Amino acid sequence: MPYSSSCLATTFKNLKPYPLQTSLFPHHGMRLPANGQVTILGSPTEIVTRGRSPSHCSRALKGLEAALRDDLITILHTPAPILLDTTNAESHPITLTTDALVITTDPCWTL
After folding, report:
1. What is the CA radius of gyration of the chain?
2. Which end of the chain is less enclosed by CB atoms within 10 A, N or C?
3. 26 and 40 share a domain?
């Protein structure tokens, strides 16, 4: 299996039929095309606070909450929670199957 970091990333989608300029994403914001998506390494809260001073993190998190509440963006994918199997010291992400079963899978970052 080739290396991938997909299980370590968050995918956001612009829900509007027009481009959306937002300062939520590092480092200087970005313009999401109409109904466009962007995938960024990290969890949603880590992404919007990345590179910000502690005094600005609260405002960034409130901005994320407002963008979600106001249906400007949605989150399509977040990093999978990772469990440690203590019997063999291996890490395994949790995945939801199409049948709505929660299973552990091989990490995306292993070869």
Report:
1. 16
2. C
3. yes
pLDDT at position 3 is 66
Residues contacting 69, CB < 8 A, separation 6+: none
- Does the pLDDT of residue 101 top 60, yes or no? yes
DSSP string, 44-80: HHHHHHTT--HHHHHHHHHHHHHHHHTTSEEEEE-PP
Question: pLDDT tens for residues 69-86?
Answer: 999 999 999 988 888 888
What is the reported pTM?
A: 0.82
The neighbour count for residue 92, using CB atoms within 10 Å, is 16
Q: In this structure, what token pair is assigned to residue 40?
A: 């960024």
Q: How many domains does the chain have?
A: 2
Q: Are residues 68 and 37 in the same domain?
A: yes
Residue whose pair of structure tokens reads 């998506």 in the numeric block? 37
17 lies in the same domain as 71: yes
Name the residue range of residue 25's domain. Answer: 6-77
